[in-house]
User: Which sequence fits this backbone?
């Protein structure tokens, strides 16, 4: 079998190590009958192979492990750190606003900031991304503004989704971010199709899809991996294994060696990374993207931890040990504090600068909130537009029924409609 090599540093090797995985090839389903494959005179049952290593460059003490090198400049590392802090501040403020009733719903990515930002920092500007719903850092790093985040969460008139989606379901085609979908797994095969199109058109860009280990249990994920492998789609699969699929722990989701092992079974180069190590995520994404551009789909499994609730509609305290959450939040294990330890050791970054940065972002979120609350809600007509080039008779009938209903009961809708763009005329 031909082999390809992926260069990576491991905790036990100070130099480049070789993670040897099978190259994508066409296996004949009749290999045994044609005596081309390995034959066995007795029944052999294979449960699992060798456990995959975890790529880590920076330890919990903020120091590079065993002589490893930082894969970027300190300035670039600081920029990524600042973006991680921005994610944490936005999450904290908007989550609090939801508890106050000013936002209908919210989902944080607390504890997963490195997985979001470290990947985004190595993707090309023309790469197209299908995110799930904990990729706020990916959006922010690619240029999505805090104002756009707040506008979307409040369904304001000028947000790209036109007020038709629930909060945290962002979209912005101008920065290569496709619309987030609530149903799990739907984005995974979509990214495979795009990656296949990029390969057949010889375009030097890739399609990227993010998903959690819970979504990996959906049939769409298995289908997507198989399509990508056989079609040599230029697709990068990024699985954030944060330990929890709402209330289901990872220990009850699979019996094998996690998610990365599935990629190998499908013939896809796969790697497991410490998802709380910003440097490791950054390096692995760079190497994975190179392979994708060569027509090799890649699966990255980022080992991290969901420190918050699944969403504001969830109470994780009912099914999760609070002690476990505290252990996973300790300094050096969670991603932001680990990156901060490295910066404090290797540069002039200190607690005062850190506090100033957090306050700057907090004020930016509050200013964005004031602007958003002064804007009208998206026009009511948006619910009938954009799906069809020409509205169907059924859509036209439904829209007319709504207009007639409002006209019959003006006392119930006059004040409400005034909050929407163009008011009644916005129908």
Assistant:
């Amino acid at each position: 079998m031909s082999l390809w090599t992926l260069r990576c540093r491991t905790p036990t090797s100070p130099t480049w190590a070789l993670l040897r995985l099978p190259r994508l090839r066409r296996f004949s389903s009749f290999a045994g009958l044609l005596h081309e494959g390995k034959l066995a005179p007795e029944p052999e049952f294979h449960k699992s192979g060798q456990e995959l290593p975890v790529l880590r460059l920076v330890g919990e003490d903020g120091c590079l492990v065993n002589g490893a090198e930082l894969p970027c400049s300190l300035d670039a590392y600081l920029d990524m750190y600042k973006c991680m802090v921005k994610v944490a501040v936005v999450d904290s403020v908007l989550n609090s606003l939801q508890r106050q009733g000013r936002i209908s719903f919210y989902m944080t990515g607390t504890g997963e900031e490195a997985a979001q930002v470290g990947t985004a920092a190595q993707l090309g500007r023309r790469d197209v991304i299908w995110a799930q719903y904990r990729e706020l850092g990916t959006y922010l790093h690619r240029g999505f503004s805090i104002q756009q985040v707040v506008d979307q969460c409040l369904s304001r008139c000028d947000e790209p989704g036109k007020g038709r989606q629930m909060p945290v379901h962002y979209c912005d085609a101008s920065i290569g971010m496709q619309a987030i979908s609530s149903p799990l797994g739907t984005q995974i095969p979509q990214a495979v199709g795009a990656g296949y199109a990029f390969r057949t058109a010889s375009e030097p860009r890739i399609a990227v899809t993010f998903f959690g280990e819970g979504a990996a249990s959906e049939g769409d994920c298995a289908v997507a991996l198989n399509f990508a492998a056989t079609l040599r789609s230029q697709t990068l699969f990024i699985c954030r294994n944060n330990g929890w699929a709402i209330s289901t722990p990872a220990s009850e989701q699979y019996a094998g060696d996690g998610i990365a092992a599935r990629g190998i079974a499908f013939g896809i180069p796969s790697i497991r990374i410490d998802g709380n190590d910003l440097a490791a995520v950054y390096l692995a994404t760079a190497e994975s993207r190179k392979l994708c551009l060569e027509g090799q789909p890649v699966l990255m499994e980022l080992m991290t931890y969901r420190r918050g609730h699944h969403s504001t509609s969830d109470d994780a305290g009912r099914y999760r040990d609070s002690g476990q959450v505290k252990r996973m939040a300790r300094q050096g294990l969670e991603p932001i504090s680990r990156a901060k330890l490295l910066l404090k050791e290797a540069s002039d970054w200190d607690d005062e600068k850190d506090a100033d940065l957090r306050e700057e972002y907090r004020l930016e979120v509050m200013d964005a909130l004031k602007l958003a609350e002064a804007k009208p809600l998206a026009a009511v007509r948006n619910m009938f537009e954009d799906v069809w080039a020409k509205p169907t008779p059924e859509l036209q009938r439904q829209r007319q029924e709504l207009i007639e209903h409002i006209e019959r009961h003006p006392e119930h809708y006059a004040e409400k409609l005034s909050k929407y763009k163009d008011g009644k005329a916005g129908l």
About this structure: The longest strand covers residues 13-22. Residues 1-28 have pLDDT under 50 and may be disordered.
